[in-house]
């Protein structure tokens, strides 16, 4: 098949998913191209052709030009697979006047959030996507349900596996832990420093945890727009929270941590949680979006979104009980074996594309 993958202005996780999908489909013999902002180039595989189509993060004067450019780029495509709400709506609109019309598949990666104006525009785009796409894929069950309520002809859960963790030795793990110079237990969060990750809850949970485990250190691996604000607030409250920034040794950090925690307020199929499962980490997570769909019933300790006290309580309980912590890590590793693979994704997409 001739497949056009379409991106809007996206966080790195969506681009990496598109890259993985495109490379996997190409390996199966499909002719795969990508259309999206020129800024995506650095995060895409160098073998993938990129047609520059500037689909911005919000409505703007260049939207009509973007739709026209996308319509031209669709020439010869059997399938157009767009990722994200705006890219999906643009793809639906651009495909309407193509003859023959390509099949349009849209993957929704995030729940629409923002102020009233943003939500109003998003509601319109959701209807355009639901009623105009041949199939809508959602990275979590709530997104699938929303699309179905809005009239989607086909709606199902997308498969979004984490990339395979590179192997790490015991020496790598020891070096990662030593580099942090922590005096006692190590709690780790791997997240982009953005609002959906619930980082205000993380700070509150760290305050609770420090009362029960005085020598704990809570490290956060990742970067993002909230970093400066979070560092300042942690310092102001004298919390045992350390922002590590982007790290290249996350697989080793996951194994070096005593407990891994996700405080998100919304997730699709969180890659960091999948990676922690694969590392056999003892996990405490919030019941956000599709997180429980990833962890299953036993892969992690699950608490309510925003419940900082419960996050701290469950984390402290794991830190205090070596046997329970090891057992939770074993359950995580077992759950990781049940997660979808790249082959599963290709099988799903080829079925949906046809």
Automatic annotation (TrEMBL):
<keyword id="KW-0808">Transferase</keyword>
<feature type="domain" description="Glycosyl transferase family 1">
    <location>
        <begin position="184"/>
        <end position="332"/>
    </location>
</feature>
<dbReference type="InterPro" id="IPR028098">
    <property type="entry name" value="Glyco_trans_4-like_N"/>
</dbReference>
<dbReference type="InterPro" id="IPR050194">
    <property type="entry name" value="Glycosyltransferase_grp1"/>
</dbReference>
<protein>
    <recommendedName>
        <fullName>D-inositol 3-phosphate glycosyltransferase</fullName>
    </recommendedName>
</protein>
<dbReference type="Pfam" id="PF00534">
    <property type="entry name" value="Glycos_transf_1"/>
</dbReference>
<feature type="domain" description="Glycosyltransferase subfamily 4-like N-terminal">
    <location>
        <begin position="12"/>
        <end position="161"/>
    </location>
</feature>
<dbReference type="GO" id="GO:0016758">
    <property type="term" value="F:hexosyltransferase activity"/>
</dbReference>
<dbReference type="Pfam" id="PF13579">
    <property type="entry name" value="Glyco_trans_4_4"/>
</dbReference>
<dbReference type="GO" id="GO:1901137">
    <property type="term" value="P:carbohydrate derivative biosynthetic process"/>
</dbReference>
<dbReference type="InterPro" id="IPR001296">
    <property type="entry name" value="Glyco_trans_1"/>
</dbReference>
<keyword id="KW-0328">Glycosyltransferase</keyword>
